[in-house]
Amino acid sequence: MDFALDSGNTAWMIVATALVLLMTPALAFFYGGMVRTKSVLNMMMMSFISIAIVGVIWVVYGYGLTFGDGILGNLIGSPTGFFGLNGIGDDSSLAAGSGVPFLVMAAFQATFAIITVALISGSVADRMKFGAWSLFAALWATLVYFPVAHAVWGGGLLGWDNPITPSSPIDFAGGTVVHINAGAAGLALALLLGTRKGFGREPMKPHNVPYIMLGAALLWFGWFGFNAGSEFAADATAGRAFINTLVAPAVAILGWLVVEKIRDGKPTSLGAASGIVAGLVAITPAAASVDTWGALGIGFIAGVLCALAVGLKYKFGYDDSLDVVGVHLVGGLVGTILIGFFANLSEGTTWAGAGDNMAPMDGLFYGGGLTQLATQTIAALIAVVFSFVMTMIIGWVIKSTIGLRVSEDVEVAGIDYAEHGETAYEEANQR
Amino acid sequence: MKLVTAIIQPHRVDEVRAAIEAVGVKGVTVSEAAGYGRQKGHTEVYRGAEYTVDLVPKTRLEILVEDADAAAVTDAIVSAAQTGKIGDGKVWVVPVDDVARVRTGEHGADAL
Hints:
Number of helices of chain B: 2
Oligomer: heterodimer
Number of domains of chain A: 1
Helix content of chain B: 10-25%
Number of helices of chain A: 14
Largest interface: A-B, 19 and 9 residues
Radius of gyration of chain B: 17 Å
Shape of chain B: elongated
């Protein structure tokens, strides 16, 4: 542990951590605006309780499960090594290369676990018992998020030099760990819960579109910490991630609005806000591995495909209420797989850590052939299947014990009063 | 005495108030209303899903007048509120048995 503390990198990581934590309350506004007045508080509380629950279990055993030495065939890290963050608390616990204290790294990574759980709540709007959600948050973080984060970032089975993919997969800031993971879980949970009463027949229009735009703005702001912070240093690669985090959402707005203009006749403000998030999701895994043209391509494709994908739930009849699947699963897949086309690893990036025979390759468009595309696709599909199956099991256990869903009269009257004893607005008609 | 009730487009309220003041009306009660007529509702699209909004916002005016003034007030409202498009609203007149002014206890025409 003879690394010098790097004050610049450490200062940046402390700021980046605060930025990423802000994303979860921002998500609460983004989601809260999309539901009706009778369930906005429950919607926002699902994000806030994720901070509480996941924040606590992260420091107790989550960091260990994610970054501890692999156990059970390296499926998971050892929870005992860093129990209560012990062993990384002294001044000499600095990350190799970046010179950032491990405690700062642990705080930064905590915010990722928190928001990944919170993202799932969009698929269960208006109808999930708060107790069931709280239990789900703890179980899902433990049994799904920590294992996937360990696999990808903790030296596990989808990380550098792994035994599965033909080259090392690239997931810079969480395309598989965060977005595919949350998106597949959202699909599973929406299927287990069933549709809201009146889904597809009654109007369930967003009650506050300005909240949605405020949430999208704060998410974008925080996302600079999410992506540029994932370099764990204030360097040129962080700069690359930073500009790509500006470019991809900007062009994704255009992609989403073009679809709306052609399909629906008018570009909407909800579409612009959704386009921002779609672009952010898609550039997350690719932020440091594509050049500006790659960011433009990934952002635009994500904007278009996510705008189209949000209609799938009506076609297939699953009530993914706020489009966790359409935005996060589809956006995460777009970003993760398009790395196989757009990766340009000579462009200001460093990929220390991968062995020579497992180094990540340039994408198809940059002369790297099909290897990285195959790697990215395999990693993405493993994440989809693992998250979906595990979420189905966790959800089924909760459903058969304490139950997932509020009663129909509570759902109709509004979940806020029944589950939290309060209502958001002084309106006679709480719809 | 008569009660003149008008349902009009919210954006014509200022013009209608000016018009009824010009024909001598001293007071009016204004409230927000929602409903539909031949205009029907309108359609909004959120993430590609169409929502029909059945009830359109309107403004309701209620004016108490003497019998002789009812026709002039009605005409003033109609001409000031008219845009010629569907959804302009309606005005109707009903007889009123009695009116009392709360402050003084006056009744009938004196209370108007």
